[in-house]
Amino acid sequence: MLLKDKIAVITGAASARGIGKAVARLFAQQGGRVAILDLDEGAAAAAAADIGPGHIGLACDVTARGDCERAAQEVIRRLGHVDILVNNAGITQPLKIMDIAPENYEAVTDVSLRGTLYMSQALIPHMRSRRSGSIVCLSSVSAQRGGGIFGGPHYSAAKAGVLGLARAMARELGPDNIRVNSLTPGLILTDITGGKLTEQMKTEILKGIPLNRLGEAQDVANSCLFLASELSSYLTGVTLDVNGGMLI
Ligand code: NAD
């Protein structure tokens, strides 16, 4: 039990096939109690109930600072404290550079970047007061390679921003014993990607993946567990490339 008595907040974890939900399920299996935050309260509560008793689901739009603060306080009130934050909420749009309108830019950067900042800010004072915390931020291989079939340049920019933000937080919060690390998943089969892949696209993509398979949400969840738990107690500011070897 790697997360016995640990309390974790996971944003964007209501989507049934999503990475956040897989993380929530794995954390619960490892003895953790989980607060699932997502746009729709009913969906968040249903996802929490689905992973077992004792977990909670709350409505929270991570682009709204007030929402993040309210959700953080509610989790602390109901579950007692918070040890782990997984900044997972994210959206993408498959646009080319000249097709990105201001509202596209804002929508995509707001969820990943503003969301990571606001949700972290909402919990850092609490983690500081406990002199303990582990924050995991979901970036993407798109940040490293520049684009991909599902992410436009604004998505790459937002996810690269997440890496910078995570490293800056890691540096600043290290003395408070709060670790901050990132994951850069490759192509993972979720609602963002699944269903939109033709067999031809899949064959083409697999040529660039040495492990010769697409990723599963569980692959990302496993690495997230490592970064969230004490197994990675001397790691901060690092990025784990959960991509089957895409960058070799
Ligand atoms: P998903 O679409 O299955 O789930 C994303 C969740 O975020 C949804 O439940 C959605 O309701 C929620 N969400 C959206 N906007 C929100 C907001 N403003 N506030 C709160 N919640 C919000 O996505 P996924 O594929 O599971 O992706 C999870 C994370 O991993 C994202 O940050 C994504 O960019 C990143 N990622 C995914 C892949 C992939 O291939 N699927 C690859 C690299 C990185």
Question: Could you explain how this protein is built, in words?
Answer:
With 248 residues, this protein is an alpha/beta fold. It has a single domain (7-240), classed as NAD(P)-binding Rossmann-like Domain (Rossmann fold, 3-Layer(aba) Sandwich), CATH 3.40.50.720. The chain contains eight helices and seven strands, in the order E-H-E-H-E-H-E-H-E-H-H-E-H-H-E. It has helices at residues 19-29, 41-50, 65-79, 102-130, 141-145, 153-173, 199-206, 217-228, and strands at residues 7-11, 33-38, 56-59, 84-87, 133-138, 178-183, 239-240. The protein is globular. The mean pLDDT is 96. The site of nicotinamide-adenine-dinucleotide has 30 residues, from helix 1 and helix 4.
Sequence-ordered SSE layout with sheet pairings:
Elements (H helix, E strand, L loop, with lengths): L6 E5 L7 H11 L3 E6 L2 H10 L5 E4 L5 H15 L4 E4 L14 H29 L2 E6 L2 H5 L7 H21 L4 E6 L15 H8 L10 H12 L10 E2 L8
Parallel strand pairs: 1-2, 1-4, 2-3, 4-5, 5-6, 6-7
The structure holds nicotinamide-adenine-dinucleotide (NAD).
Write a compact overview of the structure shown.
This protein has 248 residues and is of the alpha/beta class.
